[in-house]
Amino acid sequence: MIQGSCLCGGVQFQIARILDLFELCHCRRCRKATGSAFAASFAARQKDVQILRGTDLIATYEAPIVESPPAYRTSFCRRCGSPVPDPNPGRGWFKIDAGVLDDDLGMKPQRHIHVDRKAPWFEITDDLPRFEKRAHIELRALLETLREEG
């Protein structure tokens, strides 16, 4: 089990298994949600995430749809503002910000996504693959197909 919590410790959760998807997203909404140059997040199935404490502290914000569904949705601790897993993600899997983990995730980021929308003041200096928005959407569709088949 991988343990995680918010900054104040009010929300605690555990993850039984993560999916093979760890991305660094540079889109504007992820930058705003994290207050950083990108969001470092990984994927987990809803059934593999258990909120142990603090469900009553979790608030969810769903931003308006900009281009096409789904809307950008983020969950956070009402007390400290840390991003936390959405207790009701509405689909089989969802993304969790890696910075809220208390334990080692056991994997490294696999790619940068939405690099065409990155902050102009940030320079990507690693050798990870880089995907612009359109290429990322195509990659995500392929990953969805593979997950449904496997």
Polypeptide structure, described:
It contains two helices and ten strands; from the N terminus they run βββαβββββββα. The protein is an alpha+beta fold and 150 residues long. Helices cover 16% and strands 29% of the residues. Strand 1 and strand 2 (12-15) form a beta hairpin. It has a five-stranded mixed sheet.
Write the layout of secondary structure elements.
Blueprint: E1 2-5, E2 12-15, E3 22-25, H1 28-34, E4 39-45, E5 49-53, E6 58-62, E7 73-77, E8 93-97, E9 111-113, E10 130-131, H2 133-149
Question: Quick summary of this structure?
Answer:
This protein is of the alpha+beta class and 150 residues long. The chain has helices at 28-34, 133-149, and strands at residues 2-5, 12-15, 22-25, 39-45, 49-53, 58-62, 73-77, 93-97, 111-113, 130-131. A hairpin with a 6-residue loop joins strand 1 (2-5) and strand 2 (12-15).
- How can the largest sheet be summarized? 5 strands, mixed
CATH architecture assignment name? Beta Complex
How large is the share of residues in beta strands? Answer: 25-35%
Q: Could you say which structural class the secondary elements and strand pairing correspond to? A: alpha+beta
User: Please, what is the average pLDDT?
Assistant: 87
**What is the terminal-to-terminal distance?**
23 Å
Number of strands: 10
* Low-confidence runs: none
- Percent helix, as a range, is 10-25%
Cross-sheet strand order for the largest sheet: 8-4-3-9-10
Number of helices: 2
CATH class: Mainly Beta
Approximate shape: globular
**Helix-strand string:** EEEHEEEEEEEH
As for the number of domains, it is 1
Q: What would you report as the Rg, rounded to the nearest angstrom?
A: 15 Å
CATH fold descriptor: Metal Binding Protein, Guanine Nucleotide Exchange Factor, Chain A
